């Protein structure tokens, strides 16, 4: 087995702990937005949120220090720095939860379309949930804002991600509109993944049924090769046998 | 022929009766929502609706009891349990109508894209009809609700399923919004199926016309194999004939 | 050459005249809706419209009478009957204009994707134009209607066909909503055709560039077959030459 | 190497300068719309804008005069004439910026999907930016117009290009609606490109994983051909060796 670098070991060991920190981070954010706590409770949640953030900072610094070429690692992981440093990018820390999906995936097996749909569905559900929390956090309290409850926020997020856009709810603040744009991009990707998976499936089904026009597969070629090899071996054998028959022929 | 289990026999025998029960269920629901019956009539329709539900319960219980491994069957058919047990899932009992589509399908033949479009179109029409009934049932009577007639409900359902979403009509109750979300999901799937079928068709047409770049099909390989086999048989025949010619050669 | 039936000759001969009748029909309808003529002029346009309709009826009856099996022809051309008989289906007579597109097509050549895009673009432009005329005709004058000018009608038609659906304009009458549904169906088909053509093009471009994974084409197989045939001919020739060499060998 | 015509040399030499002129043109337009300058400054920007336009005119005339067949060149470059002559088409001069994308592309390499996505993303961002400037320029100041600031214009452009269309913002002037239609067309193309790229990618991934049904590639056929050639060479060699063995056989 190839020897792992310290950096790879660190990433492997912290994969699950960081996913759990991300989950806690999500739970704390949910309580902060939905419960709107006051006093002592609000203070505790702030602390928990800061601790979770601190862990991501520590993870970033350790990975930077363990890198063989730190300058190169820094340039290649600028995105990680942004996620850690910018408050606006906080929800992207939830990308750590991809590990949980990876665990679910083992149940599904190695089917490409199944995996793609699994990631898409879990991604869209998480996107809708987090966008609903974030938009509620931003819009609530602004005079003239339409999104004032979590139910309305979820309803708005779903009608945006499906690109329906009734217009009964829409954000009016700048951060709210940035969240909306992310949802729209997610919606176009969602339509894209659903359509593309279906297209791939239909192409395959059409090919399977329509045997006359069935695409030649590598296994067809493999069978043909086996046949040619059998022929060539037989010929060689035959020719050699007859060469051996004729040593007595006059030279 | 492989011997069928009792469970398979039950499913085969009850396929059509249950589709008819589903149709009756749909008719009863339509009259309940559109006719808004009172007194005796309302009571009779309620009874019919409960009897139809009872039949689905009986079907579920019989299939459970006939299963070879009941625990496994229970786990694998949790969805069936939900459809039977939850009032919200009632419309999904109409999935039984898929048998009717199966009958239509025989007219179309075994063309994959034709079958997919048939299922999609009949599914979308049923979805729009049932969603219109359900949204009208939920929204009508709520103060401030925009959807107050069946015509408005159908108009809203179609503009939602196509993801146009003008916003002149939209649900304001929670169950109404759940129905809307199902319609949106149906709409994205509809766009996906239409696009994917077209993509598959275009890919095939392009390949057929552009003969130089036509994809190698299994039948091409088959012809090639036939040719190689002819060659190898001829060679064997020739070599054996000549072996037979040379018995007199000194050994 | 195969002898044409009288029906085929009729269809070939009337293809262009009927396309011209369809164009006149479109022009008359445009003037009727946009010019809102009164008195004598309105009467003349009505006459022209009825004459155009009469020609479609004559065409339908002649084709029916020339059919070898009239009952079968009637059943297979029910759609044609509906287009001729129902006032609501009038705009579908414009499908005759497909001949004009066929003429344009000769300039483009026989490229599948080019032809598909040509039909789609010309179909969408015609759809938007006719739907704008029809919606204006239906909505104008209704109290509370939002679409009151041709400009607004075109704006509404385009924002519907692209499934954007702002909701600043929308039909409020039943015939207007039927037209809207046709536009939405056209919009989903438009998205489907655009996406599918792009998908087919990208799949082909990826295959062309990525030579290592280039799909095996029929021409690859053809070259391989030529090689095998050359080998088999050479072998036969060689074997026969040597058979001819050995008649003197002792028997 | 093939000798270039004077026209080709001109196009090659002016590619970058014209891209820079297009950038300056974009900067001037941005300042004009966003800064709404007055007096001397406005005059200077007008002059800069006219100078940039003059350079495009000179480029058009030089290319026309250098063409071997000017009539043919004129007919084939009608689109270029429109871009130069019509004020409405001004933003299309930014198509010159495609050279900048070409430079970026070298970093990505020759991967087809990567290039397509690069052009799409940069095209969409430029489209949104320019459409936001243009719509603001058109709508601002009209009584009843909803789009009154650059922020609102960008928000409207993004919700249009993704076909969400909330309807909180929409253009009310004719030029504004023309810009909206271009954005909608861009949106449908965007959905198309995203979906098509994903479809192509999924089809490839499915084929790679599912080895049993892996599509036969040109390299599979190449290996098979190599095997057949080896067999045929061996046979020829063998047969010739034995022909050489038998000259002493009686003739």
Question: Topology of this protein?
Answer:
The structure is a homotetramer of 251-residue chains.
Chain A: H1 6-35, H2 39-66, H3 70-76, H4 78-85, H5 98-108, H6 112-139, H7 150-161, H8 174-209, H9 218-245
Helix pairs in contact in A: 1-2, 1-6, 2-4, 5-6, 6-7, 6-8
Summed up, what is this model?
Four copies of one chain form a homotetramer. Chain A has 251 residues and is mainly α. The first copy, chain A, has nine helices and no strands.
Q: What does this protein structure show overall?
A:
Chains A, B, C, D: InterPro entries: K_chnl_dom, VG_K_chnl, Volt_channel_dom_sf. Chains A, B, C, D: It is a multi-pass membrane protein. Chains A, B, C, D: It comes from Mycobacterium saskatchewanense. 4 copies of one chain form a homotetramer. Chain A has 251 residues and is mainly alpha-helical. The first copy, chain A, has 9 helices and no strands. In chain A, helix 1 packs antiparallel against helix 2 (39-66), helix 1 (6-35) packs across helix 6 (112-139) and helix 2 packs antiparallel against helix 4 (78-85). The longest helix of chain A has 36 residues, at 174-209. The model of chain A has no long low-confidence stretch (mean pLDDT 80). At the A-B interface, helix 7, helix 8 and helix 9 of A face helix 6, helix 8 and helix 9 of B.
């Amino acid at each position: 087995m190839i020897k792992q670098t310290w950096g790879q070991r660190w990433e492997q060991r912290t994969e699950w702990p960081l996913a759990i920190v991300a989950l806690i981070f999500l739970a704390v954010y949910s309580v902060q937005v939905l419960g709107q706590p006051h006093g002592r409770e609000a203070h505790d949640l702030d602390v928990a949120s800061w601790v979770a953030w601190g862990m991501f900072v520590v993870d970033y610094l350790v990975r930077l220090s363990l890198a063989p070429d730190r300058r190169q690692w820094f340039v290649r992981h600028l995105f990680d720095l942004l996620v850690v440093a910018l408050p606006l990018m906080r929800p992207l820390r939830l990308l750590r939860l991809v590990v949980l999906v990876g665990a679910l995936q083992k149940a599904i097996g190695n089917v490409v379309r199944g995996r793609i749909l699994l990631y898409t569905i879990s991604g869209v559900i998480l996107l809708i949930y987090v966008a609903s929390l974030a938009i509620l956090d931003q819009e609530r309290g602004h005079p003239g804002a339409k999104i004032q409850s979590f139910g309305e926020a979820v309803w708005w997020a779903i009608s945006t991600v499906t690109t329906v856009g009734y217009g009964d709810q829409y954000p009016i603040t700048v951060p709210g509109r940035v969240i909306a744009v992310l949802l729209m991009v997610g919606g176009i990707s969602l339509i894209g993944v659903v359509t593309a998976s279906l297209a791939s499936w239909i192409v395959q089904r059409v090919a399977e049924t329509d045997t006359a026009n069935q695409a030649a597969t590598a296994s067809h070629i493999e069978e043909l090769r086996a046949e040619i090899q059998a022929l060539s071996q037989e010929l060689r054998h035959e020719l050699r046998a007859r060469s051996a028959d004729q040593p007595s022929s006059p030279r």
